[in-house]
Amino acid sequence: MTITTTYRVEGMTCGHCVGSVTAEVSRVPGVTGVDVDLAAKLVTVTSRGPLDDAAVGAAVDEAGYELTGRAGAPAAETSATPETPEAPAAPAAGLPVIELLPADGAAAGQADSCCGSGGCR
Protein backbone atom coordinates (compact mmCIF):
# COMPACT_ATOMS: atom_id res chain seq x y z
CA MET A 1 0.00 0.00 0.00
CA THR A 2 1.33 3.44 -0.95
CA ILE A 3 0.18 6.55 0.90
CA THR A 4 0.77 10.15 -0.19
CA THR A 5 0.62 12.92 2.43
CA THR A 6 1.21 16.62 1.77
CA TYR A 7 2.44 19.00 4.48
CA ARG A 8 2.77 22.78 4.70
CA VAL A 9 6.33 23.91 5.51
CA GLU A 10 7.43 27.48 6.28
CA GLY A 11 10.86 29.03 5.86
CA MET A 12 12.07 27.45 2.62
CA THR A 13 13.43 30.03 0.16
CA CYS A 14 15.82 28.32 -2.26
CA GLY A 15 17.08 25.11 -3.83
CA HIS A 16 19.34 24.46 -0.86
CA CYS A 17 16.29 24.52 1.40
CA VAL A 18 14.56 21.98 -0.87
CA GLY A 19 17.59 19.69 -0.69
CA SER A 20 17.81 19.92 3.09
CA VAL A 21 14.13 19.12 3.63
CA THR A 22 14.22 16.30 1.07
CA ALA A 23 17.28 14.70 2.69
CA GLU A 24 15.93 14.85 6.25
CA VAL A 25 12.37 13.69 5.46
CA SER A 26 13.75 10.85 3.30
CA ARG A 27 15.35 9.43 6.45
CA VAL A 28 11.98 8.94 8.20
CA PRO A 29 11.23 5.19 8.38
CA GLY A 30 8.71 4.13 5.72
CA VAL A 31 9.25 7.13 3.43
CA THR A 32 9.73 6.11 -0.20
CA GLY A 33 9.64 9.54 -1.86
CA VAL A 34 9.72 13.27 -1.12
CA ASP A 35 8.66 16.07 -3.48
CA VAL A 36 9.07 19.70 -2.40
CA ASP A 37 7.10 22.50 -4.07
CA LEU A 38 9.08 25.57 -3.05
CA ALA A 39 6.64 28.14 -4.45
CA ALA A 40 3.62 26.57 -2.74
CA LYS A 41 5.55 25.77 0.48
CA LEU A 42 4.39 22.16 0.27
CA VAL A 43 6.18 18.87 0.89
CA THR A 44 4.55 15.74 -0.52
CA VAL A 45 5.70 12.52 1.11
CA THR A 46 5.08 9.05 -0.32
CA SER A 47 5.29 6.17 2.13
CA ARG A 48 4.67 2.43 2.46
CA GLY A 49 2.10 3.06 5.20
CA PRO A 50 0.73 5.74 7.52
CA LEU A 51 3.39 8.17 8.74
CA ASP A 52 3.86 9.61 12.19
CA ASP A 53 3.34 13.35 11.63
CA ALA A 54 5.58 14.05 14.63
CA ALA A 55 8.46 12.15 12.97
CA VAL A 56 8.00 14.13 9.74
CA GLY A 57 7.82 17.36 11.76
CA ALA A 58 11.03 16.45 13.61
CA ALA A 59 12.78 15.82 10.27
CA VAL A 60 11.62 19.17 8.88
CA ASP A 61 12.76 20.84 12.11
CA GLU A 62 16.16 19.15 11.84
CA ALA A 63 16.47 20.64 8.35
CA GLY A 64 15.83 24.08 9.88
CA TYR A 65 12.24 24.73 8.85
CA GLU A 66 8.75 24.53 10.37
CA LEU A 67 6.05 22.02 9.51
CA THR A 68 2.80 23.93 10.05
CA GLY A 69 0.36 21.11 9.33
CA ARG A 70 -1.05 18.91 6.63
CA ALA A 71 -2.05 20.62 3.40
CA GLY A 72 -5.81 20.88 3.15
CA ALA A 73 -6.20 20.81 6.93
CA PRO A 74 -7.20 24.02 8.70
CA ALA A 75 -4.21 26.15 9.64
CA ALA A 76 -3.35 26.40 13.31
CA GLU A 77 -5.49 28.93 15.14
CA THR A 78 -3.96 32.32 15.63
CA SER A 79 -4.32 34.86 18.37
CA ALA A 80 -7.52 36.92 18.32
CA THR A 81 -5.46 40.05 18.92
CA PRO A 82 -3.21 40.79 15.96
CA GLU A 83 0.30 41.80 16.85
CA THR A 84 1.39 45.22 15.70
CA PRO A 85 4.94 45.15 14.41
CA GLU A 86 7.23 47.75 15.87
CA ALA A 87 8.24 50.52 13.54
CA PRO A 88 11.86 50.24 12.43
CA ALA A 89 14.23 52.60 14.16
CA ALA A 90 15.09 55.68 12.16
CA PRO A 91 18.71 55.91 11.04
CA ALA A 92 20.90 58.25 13.01
CA ALA A 93 21.03 61.74 11.55
CA GLY A 94 23.53 62.07 8.76
CA LEU A 95 24.09 58.31 8.28
CA PRO A 96 23.22 56.70 4.94
CA VAL A 97 20.61 53.95 4.70
CA ILE A 98 22.13 50.84 3.09
CA GLU A 99 20.03 48.16 1.38
CA LEU A 100 21.43 44.65 1.74
CA LEU A 101 21.26 42.33 -1.28
CA PRO A 102 21.77 38.56 -1.49
CA ALA A 103 25.40 37.47 -1.75
CA ASP A 104 25.08 36.51 -5.43
CA GLY A 105 23.70 39.95 -6.36
CA ALA A 106 20.35 38.57 -7.56
CA ALA A 107 17.14 40.42 -6.90
CA ALA A 108 15.61 39.80 -3.51
CA GLY A 109 12.75 37.33 -3.46
CA GLN A 110 13.96 35.15 -6.32
CA ALA A 111 14.14 31.44 -5.68
CA ASP A 112 17.71 30.18 -5.37
CA SER A 113 19.02 33.66 -4.54
CA CYS A 114 18.84 33.77 -0.76
CA CYS A 115 22.29 32.37 -0.22
CA GLY A 116 24.69 32.52 -3.11
CA SER A 117 26.81 29.85 -1.42
CA GLY A 118 23.98 27.36 -0.82
CA GLY A 119 24.35 27.67 2.95
CA CYS A 120 21.24 29.61 3.94
CA ARG A 121 20.42 27.49 6.98
From TrEMBL:
InterPro entries: Cu-bd, Heavy-metal-associated_CS, HMA_dom, HMA_dom_sf
Keywords, alphabetical: Metal-binding
PROSITE patterns per record: HMA_1 (PS01047), HMA_2 (PS50846)
HMA domain boundaries: 3-68
Keyword Metal-binding listed: yes
Keyword match Metal-binding: yes
Biased composition, class Low complexity, residue ranges: 71-90
Transmembrane segments: none
Native source organism of the sequence: Planomonospora alba
Region annotated Disordered, chain positions: 70-90
Name of protein: HMA domain-containing protein
